[in-house]
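Suppose you are handed only these lines of text.
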Amino acid sequence: MRMQTAAVAMAALGLIAWVEPKTATPLVAKDAAAEEAKRQMVYVHKTRAKEAQRVQDIAFRIMVANQDLCADRAPRLGMDWDVADSFDAKVRPAAVEAYKIGDGVTVTQVIAGSPAAAAGLQPGDVVVSVNGEAAPTGKRADRKLSKRVDEIKGASTAPLTFVVRRAGQEQTLAVTPVMACAYGVAVADQPELNAYADGKNIHITRPMLRFAASDEELALVIAHEIAHNGQHHIQAKQKNAAVLGVPGLLIDIAAAAGGVNTNGAFAKAGMQYGASRSSAAFEAEADYVGMYYLARAGYPTDGVEDFWRKMAVEEPNAIFIKSTHPATPDRFLAIASADDEIGAKRAKGEPLTPNQKVNEARAAEAGGAK
Ligand SMILES: [Zn+2]
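From them, the structure of the protein bound to zinc ion can be written out as follows.
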C-alpha cells in the first residue's frame, strides 16, 4: 500500500512513467483467434487420445498376460466409449470433432490386441444395442451403458453382440471378453514426473510419458504400478497404518500410493506416513514382480534397468538417499538381477512366476515332521 502511494506521488512529479514495448507487434483479429482456439482444442484432444491409447495398449497387454498373478481380475473388452454431454459446453465442439463422437454413445478407443479390436470395433462407431438391448440414451448415457455391460458380463467371458452404426450402416460384431487384471489406467494431468497406483487404478503423468520415451520403458513403469495393485500393496499399507494406530495416515497412503517417483515430491508425503517404513520394501517388490509382468507380456527385460540411471539424472539425491523408495542404484541392480533370474528360468523351461519368500516357521515344521 505504501509502495503504491509512493509510486503515485513519484509519477505525479514526473520521476517515473508508464513504459510500453517499442516494436509494432502484429494485430490479432478476434474471430481468427476464436477459430485458432478451436483448432488448438481439437489438437489437445487428439493428442491426449493418442497418449491415452499408448498407455492403454501397453497396460492391457500386461494385464491380460498376468491376470493369474493379479489379486483382482475381470472379463474385459478393451474399449472405451463416450457421449458429447460428458464434455463441458466450452470444449464440446472440439471434443466431438477430435473423438468423432456421433449421435449416441460412441466408441472413442479400441485397445490394440483387445477383444474389441479383434471383433472389428472402431472409434466413431455409435453403439445401437448390446445383446439385443437398445443402448441407453439421455444424459451421461455412456455411464449407463458401462454399468449395464458390466451387469451383462458378470464374471463370464461369453461373447457379447454389439450392433453399431458406422457411416450410416449397422454392423453386428461379436466381442468375446478376455480375463485380465481389473485395474483402470489413466493419464494424470499433473506437472510432476511420476506414476502411481491407488489400489484400483494406475496413473501415469504426462511428463512421465515424455520421459519414458520408448514403449519398453513405459511398459516398465506401467508393470511396476500394476504390480502395486496386483500385490494389494495399498491394502497392506493401510493395514500397517492401522496396526501402528495412525488412522490419519490412511488418507495420505491412498493419495500418495507408491509412485515410481523416487525421493522428490514423494519424500515429503513419505515423511507424513510412518507406515512408509515398509514402503521401500513394497517398492522393491513392485520392481521385482513388475519384471515378471513384463517378461510374461513379451516385453524385453534386459537393459530395462537403465531407466534408473535416467531417473538418477532427474533426481541425483535419489542415488544416495533411501526414503519411501529404494535408492536408484539399488533399483538398477535389483532389476538387473531379476532379469538374470528370469533368464535362468527361461533356459531351464521353468514357469515364469516370482519367487516367494520361504515361510520359515512352516519350513521348520516341515523339517521337524520328516
Ligand atoms: Zn512404486
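What can we learn from it? The pocket of zinc ion is lined by residues 224, 228, 258-260, 283, 286 (CB under 6 Å). The chain is about 50% helix and 15% strand.
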